[in-house]
Structure formats: structure tokens, C-alpha cells
Design a protein that fits this description.
The protein is mainly α. The chain has a domain at about 75-185. About 70% of the residues lie in helices and about 0% in strands. The protein has helices at about 5-10, 25-35, 45-70, 90-95, 95-115, 120-150, 155-185. The longest helix is centred in the C-terminal third of the chain and has 34 residues, at about 155-185. It starts with a helix and ends with a helix. About 10% of the residues are buried.
Length: about 190
């Protein structure tokens, strides 16, 4: 009883009279577009958003750079000069070490500039600033030692550790102030 499909189609001529409506394809495409997600085209507005973001980031970088340049010399977190007159920074020893030093100093200054000090948390802030001053004085002593004895691993490691400690101290201060402010809002 198995019949070939061609034979069946030839015999059943009633189905051949059926025709699709003239707007069948348009309705099909409309349903298909509604059911399937559309590919997103990258438009000009997307490119403008990227350009605007780049401009904002660039201006933010320039603003931070200007703010870092305006740090007073007597600030506890600045890179003070040593009285001997022959200041050697880590950049004088190696450009890579200079980049490390610049990274830490910029990070310290950036974090300090973002702190919100209120009359309620001034005491905590002042305690941390006093510790930063001590670390800054130790940094100056290490630079003097670097000038006196020349670069060696122990002195260079101590300078980098000092910078790392100062950044960690500022990060702890930021956390303390955030905790203090959040507990103040709960009360």
C-alpha cells in the first residue's frame, strides 16, 4: 500500500487550487520579527555616546591631575623634598620604580581627596593624618638614606613598603569614615 508521494500529489488536485493570500509574506515577516530578537545596529548615537564618555574620562583625568598638582608641600601625604638639596626619587634610580612611586602617591592623594570629613568624624581623621605624617617623615628619612648610601635593595624595598603602608592607611581611614557615616545615619 505504500505510495510514492508524487503519485499522491498528482491524484489530489484539490490542494493545487489553494493559493496564498497576497499579503501572506508580509504577515509572516511581521510575526517572525515580533517573535525573534532583532539584531542591534550600531548607530551614530552609539558612537556619539562612546565619544562623549571618552571626553568625560579625559576631562576627569585632567581635573585629577590638576588637583594633584595643587597639593601643598606641607601636606602629610606629599612627596616632600629633602633638605640636602640632592633629592633622589625612585624615578632617578629606575623609570619603573618611578612609575610605582607615582602610582602610590597618586592613589594616596586621590583617596584623600575623596574623603568626607565632618565635625563628628574629625577626631578619627586627625588620628589617621598624624600616622600619615609619621610615615611621611620616615619616607623623607629613607630618601636621605638613599642619597647617602646609594640605591640598594633594602632601602628601595623600605621606600615601597612605606608607600604601600600609607595607601593602606588611607584605605582604612576611608573604610572607618564610611562605617562611621553609615552608623550615624542608622542612629
Amino acid at each position: 500500500m505504500a505510495q510514492h508521494i508524487r503519485d499522491l500529489l498528482k491524484k489530489d488536485k484539490s490542494d493545487q487550487d489553494l493559493k496564498m493570500s497576497h499579503d501572506h509574506e508580509a504577515r509572516f515577516l511581521k510575526k517572525l520579527n515580533r517573535e525573534l530578537p532583532q539584531k542591534r545596529k550600531i548607530s551614530r548615537s552609539f558612537g556619539l555616546r562612546i565619544a562623549a564618555s571618552f571626553i568625560v574620562l579625559l576631562s576627569l583625568g585632567l581635573a585629577i591631575n590638576e588637583k594633584l598638582k595643587s597639593v601643598p608641600d606641607d601636606a602629610p601625604y606629599s612627596n616632600k623634598t629633602v633638605e640636602s638639596g640632592t633629592v633622589k626619587s625612585l624615578e632617578d634610580v629606575s623609570p619603573d620604580l618611578g612609575k610605582v612611586e607615582d602610582y602610590y602617591l597618586a592613589s594616596i592623594n586621590l583617596e584623600l581627596s575623596q574623603l568626607e570629613v565632618s565635625p563628628e568624624n574629625t577626631e578619627v581623621f586627625n588620628d589617621y593624618i598624624a600616622q600619615l605624617k609619621l610615615l611621611s617623615q620616615e619616607y623623607d628619612n629613607l630618601i636621605k638614606e638613599l642619597n647617602a648610601s646609594g640605591p640598594n635593595n633594602a632601602t628601595l624595598d623600605a621606600i615601597i613598603d612605606n608607600l604601600r603602608l600609607r595607601l593602606n592607611l588611607v584605605m582604612r581611614l576611608k573604610t572607618k569614615l564610611d562605617d562611621f557615616n553609615s552608623s550615624e545615619f542608622r542612629a
